[in-house]
Task: structure prediction
Amino acid sequence: MMKCPNCQSKDLGKIGINQYYCWNCFIELTVGGRTIHTHQVEEDGSLSSLDDLFDEQERKLS
Ligand SMILES: [Zn+2]
Result:
């Protein structure tokens, strides 16, 4: 089961192919291979990466 690397919530909504949205902390998650990429949606609708905030280990799919 996939969980949010930021808040550990499993309350994730699927928004596209390999794309999820965390309803708890409102970040977007994209799964690429075995790694979760994290993005924040800015006010203007653009995405900024949050991957720097997490260790690669934290973003691995279990
Ligand atoms: Zn979250």
In short: The chain is about 0% helix and 40% strand. Residues 12-54 form one domain. The two ends are 8 Å apart (CA to CA). The chain has a mean pLDDT of 93.
